[in-house]
Amino acid sequence: MHAQYVSAATKSMTLDFSGPSSFTDTVGLTPSSTGCSGSPLQCTIAVRLRPGKYVVNVRAYDKAPVNGAIPVAAKLLSSASNVSATVAAGRVNRLGLTLDGVPASVTIGTFPFGFAGTGFLSTAFTVGVIDADHDTIVGTYSTPVTLGDSDTSGATSVATSGTNDPPAKTLLSSSDTAALSYTGAPVGAVTISAAAGSVKSSRVFAVANPIFVADNGGTNLKEIAPECNLPGCTRTLSTGFGGIVGLASAANGDLYVADAPGQEILHLEPCFAGYCLVDTPVTGVASLKGVAIDSGVHHIYASSGGYVYEFTPPSCENTSCAPAVGNGAFVNPAQLAVDRSGNVYVADPTLGEVIKVPPGCTGPTCTLQLGGTAFSTPQGVAVDNAGNVYVADTFGSVFEMPDTCQSQSCATPIGAGFLEPYNVSIDDLGFVNVTDVSANKVYQFQAQCSVPTCAVSMGGGFSGLGAISVP
């Protein structure tokens, strides 16, 4: 019998034969045993059998036999199941077995950062399949590895290839390669996963998305490309708005624009000309000041006068049917944000407060004031996926705090050197983006930044900045 691929930690093996002379044999076997050589390791074991047809099952373990038996604490390292064999009389019969590694864990190699607007094809990444003794399996796997891609928009995809022609998104052996493709479309963080049966792991492919800003007093919608810090890489996507007072971005790059003079919220999507109008999901909202959307764009929130309304288009598209969330808690609600749980965050510059409104809360008693007395005139608010809240205070500061913070002590100033920060957004890579209306600049910095030198000016050529958003 000729068995291929023996794990480096192998100490024993069981061979189960079903046929004319059915029996189970347990042998001590290590990579240095007589008859084992090569890379990947190959071992030859002699077994006496009666002529006939057999079904063979082989198991390799990391513990040596004790009194002819595999110890209970032994870990399974590799196996071959239901192998058919025919033994003929009068000659040496060779039974070639390929032992498949038994996965105990899976690791996924790093991906390059993606930049919206710049795609790439077939960028290889590594998938390591580890056995129970922490050795990388070389050869085939007892359980194929299936790859997953959480992105349903088609902006990212994973594929596999190899000499054994594995099915799409499937790795059959360590010789197969995995690749990630990206179209360049705006998309949120994407999870790439690998699973061998119940053994699973995942890794995030992060995309740096453009920054969307309202400029020229809200008449122009502009885009700042990722890593752009010069006016030449700022482009105008759409013009002719009456006055953009709020922006909200969906994960797929679609935009929701609060246009105050038109008393409406516009839905735009990428098109050949930049961004084009798709529909107008909300109309007839007087005194518009801000807009926010939930993760699935099932709910659209707008600040209007002293109220924050919740719209559910197409069933409810105006204030006659929309409930006022947190009604009575605000005086002059401005910018809004929504987290994954549906909590709405409201910056009220007149009250000098940031208020959290839980889902279903329609009165003041169920709201929560955040940050205590930390703020003077908070105008902008954003929230990340971890529940951290970011506040742009036009008095000159930007703050970060947990979504449970109710005192000044847990509201931390971040960034520095601002004149009049008006609005704020946070992207999937942890970059905070701020519009400074007095300086006519857009600043970007990591949330841990607390000195002016780490806040980088993005884009340029602005003449009346206001709302800001990232997908």
Question: SSE layout and pairings?
Answer:
Elements: E1 2-4, E2 12-18, E3 23-28, E4 36-37, E5 42-44, E6 52-61, E7 76-87, E8 96-98, E9 100-101, E10 105-108, E11 114-115, E12 120-125, E13 127-130, E14 140-149, E15 156-161, E16 170-173, E17 177-182, E18 190-196, E19 199-205, E20 207-208, E21 211-215, E22 220-224, E23 234-238, E24 244-249, E25 255-259, E26 264-271, E27 274-283, E28 288-293, E29 300-304, E30 307-311, E31 336-338, E32 344-348, E33 353-357, E34 368-370, E35 378-383, E36 388-393, E37 397-402, E38 412-414, E39 421-426, E40 431-436, E41 441-446, E42 456-458, E43 468-469
Parallel strand pairs: 1-8, 11-20
Antiparallel strand pairs: 1-5, 2-3, 2-6, 4-5, 6-7, 7-9, 10-13, 12-17, 14-16, 14-18, 15-17, 18-19, 21-22, 21-43, 22-23, 24-25, 25-26, 26-27, 28-29, 29-30, 31-32, 32-33, 33-34, 35-36, 36-37, 37-38, 39-40, 40-41, 41-42
Overview of the structural elements:
With 471 residues, the chain is mainly β. The protein has no helices and 43 strands. A five-stranded antiparallel beta sheet has the order 3-2-6-7-9, with no helix packed on it. A hairpin with a 2-residue loop joins strand 18 (190-196) and strand 19. The two termini are 60 Å apart. The model has no long low-confidence stretch (mean pLDDT 92).
